[in-house]
C-alpha cells in the first residue's frame, strides 16, 4: 500500500480481510535485511496496480523508484498491469496520455479506465473498472485467452494515394480502432500481425506491425499473409479510388476548373473472403446513414462472416475520437449492439464476440 492508500484504508484492515501480510515501506528494517522489495518483485507472477493514479502513471513512465510500489514495479520481470483511476480531465490531459502511451509501448497492460459518474461529481472516462472485472481479466491472463494459439491478421489506419510528389488522397481515419482491436486480440492470446497505414500510434505490445502507405501496398501485404492466418479483421479505412496517374512533378495551379481521373483500388476484404482456403473474415463499415442496412448488404455481397458497422460524422465518436459504438452483424442473421464506449473497451467486446463466432465454426 502506498502512503495515499493508507489515508483511505488501514493496512490492518487489508491484512485482516486477506489473511496476508501488507507491505508498505521501502526501507522496512526487518524486511530489507533480506532485500525485501527485490524478494517481492521476484515472487510475483503478475504485478497489478489498482487504482493506478495519474501520479503513479507518471512515476512509472519515467522510471522513478521512490517508494515500495514503484521500486517493486521497476525491479520485477513479471507482467505489469495497471488499472487507472482519476478525474476525467486528468485522464484526458496530454501529459497523462503521453505517459500512458510510453507505458503501453513498453508492454505494460492497461485495464480500463471505465466511463461514468465520478466521485468529484463529473462524468467521463477515468473511473477504475469494477474490482470483479479487474479480477476476471487478471484471471483470464493465466488460464489462456479466448484466442489462444490463433493467428489473427488486422488492418488499420488510412491509406494515402499519391497525386504528385507532395499531394495525396486520404481520409480522416486515425487508426485508433484498428490498433485497439489488434491489442485486444493479443490480450486474448492470439498471435497478431497488424498491417497499418500511416498513423502516429505505437505498435500494441506483442503485435507485429507491417507499415504500408497505399491501398495497393496494403493489398499486397495482406494477400501475402492471408493464407497463414485464422482470422482476418479489416479495420483499415482503405481508399476506394486512387488517381489514374501519379504526376512525376508537382501539379501547378492553373486558371479554371481541374479534373481528376480516378480508378478503383483492390477490394482487400472481398479478396480475402474469396480465397479457396479463406480465414474467418471480419469487415468494418463506416456509414453516415442507414447503418444496419448498408452493413448487411456489405456482409452478404462480400461474403464476410462478421461485419462491425459504425455511424461516422457525429461529434462524440468515430474518426479521431477516443470513443465509438458498433452494430455487429453476422451471417445467420445475428445482430448485437455495442454501446458507445472508449475504443479499447469496445475492441475487447468486439474481439470477444468474434472469438465466440469463430469458435462456433471452428470448435477446438
Structural features:
single chain; 364 residues; alpha/beta; Rossmann fold; 2 domains; eight-stranded mixed β-sheet; three-stranded parallel β-sheet; 17 strands; 35% helix
Structural write-up:
There is one protein chain. The chain is α/β, with parallel strands linked by helices. It folds into 2 domains: 3-143, Rossmann fold (3-Layer(aba) Sandwich), CATH 3.40.50.1950; 151-361, Rossmann fold (3-Layer(aba) Sandwich), CATH 3.40.50. The protein is 35% helix and 23% strand. It has 14 helices and 17 strands. The protein has helices at residues 3-6, 11-18, 29-32, 36-43, 54-61, 68-75, 88-92, 94-105, 131-143, 176-187, 215-225, 268-273, 291-301, 343-361, and strands spanning 47-52, 80-84, 109-110, 114-117, 123-127, 151-156, 161-162, 168-169, 191-196, 208-211, 231-234, 241-243, 262-264, 280-287, 306-311, 323-330, 335-342. The strands form 5 sheets. The chain has an 8-stranded mixed beta sheet with strand order 10-9-6-11-14-15-16-17, with helices on both faces. Strands 1-2-3 form a 3-stranded parallel beta sheet, covered by helices on one side. Strand 14, helix 13 (291-301) and strand 15 form a beta-alpha-beta unit. Helix 4 (36-43) packs across helix 6 (68-75) and helix 5 (54-61) packs across helix 8. The longest helix is centred in the last third of the chain and has 19 residues, at 343-361. The protein is globular and about 75 Å long. 33% of the residues are buried. Mean pLDDT is 88; it is low at 30-34.
Amino acid at each position: 500500500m502506498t502512503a495515499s492508500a493508507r489515508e483511505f484504508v488501514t493496512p490492518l484492515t487489508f491484512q485482516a480481510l486477506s489473511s496476508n501480510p501488507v507491505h508498505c515501506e521501502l526501507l522496512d528494517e526487518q524486511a530489507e535485511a533480506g532485500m525485501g522489495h527485490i524478494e517481492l518483485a521476484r515472487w510475483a507472477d503478475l504485478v497489478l496496480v489498482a487504482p493506478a493514479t495519474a501520479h503513479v502513471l507518471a512515476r512509472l513512465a519515467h522510471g522513478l523508484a521512490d517508494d515500495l510500489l514503484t521500486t517493486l514495479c521497476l525491479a520485477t520481470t513479471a507482467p505489469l498491469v495497471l488499472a487507472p483511476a482519476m478525474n476525467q480531465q486528468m485522464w484526458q490531459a496530454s501529459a497523462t496520455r503521453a505517459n500512458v502511451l510510453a507505458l503501453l509501448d513498453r508492454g505494460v497492460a492497461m485495464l480500463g479506465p471505465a466511463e461514468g459518474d465520478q466521485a468529484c461529481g463529473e462524468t467521463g472516462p477515468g473511473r477504475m473498472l469494477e474490482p470483479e472485472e479487474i479480477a476476471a481479466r487478471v484471471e483470464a491472463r493465466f488460464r489462456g485467452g479466448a484466442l489462444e494459439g490463433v493467428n489473427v491478421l488486422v488492418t488499420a489506419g488510412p491509406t494515402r494515394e499519391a497525386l504528385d510528389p507532395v499531394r495525396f488522397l486520404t481520409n480522416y481515419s486515425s487508426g485508433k480502432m484498428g490498433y485497439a482491436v489488434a491489442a485486444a486480440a493479443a490480450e486474448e492470446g492470439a498471435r497478431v500481425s497488424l498491417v497499418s497505414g500511416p498513423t502516429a500510434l505505437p505498435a500494441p505490445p506483442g503485435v507485429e506491425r507491417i507499415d504500408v502507405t497505399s491501398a495497393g501496398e496494403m493489398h499486397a501485404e495482406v494477400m501475402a499473409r492471408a493464407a497463414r492466418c485464422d482470422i482476418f479483421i479489416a479495420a483499415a479505412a482503405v481508399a476506394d479510388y486512387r488517381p489514374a496517374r501519379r504526376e512525376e512533378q508537382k501539379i501547378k495551379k492553373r486558371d479554371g476548373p481541374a479534373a481528376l481521373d480516378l480508378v478503383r483500388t483492390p477490394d482487400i476484404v472481398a479478396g480475402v473472403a474469396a480465397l479457396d482456403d479463406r480465414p474467418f473474415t471480419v469487415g468494418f463499415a463506416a456509414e453516415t446513414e442507414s447503418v444496419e442496412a448498408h452493413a448487411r448488404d456489405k456482409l452478404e455481397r462480400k461474403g464476410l462472416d462478421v461485419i462491425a458497422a459504425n455511424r461516422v460524422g457525429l461529434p462524440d465518436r468515430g474518426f479521431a475520437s477516443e470513443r465509438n459504438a458498433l452494430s455487429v452483424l453476422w451471417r445467420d442473421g445475428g445482430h448485437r449492439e455495442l454501446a458507445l464506449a472508449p475504443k479499447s473497451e469496445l475492441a475487447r467486446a468486439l474481439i470477444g464476440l468474434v472469438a465466440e463466432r469463430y469458435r462456433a465454426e471452428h470448435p477446438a
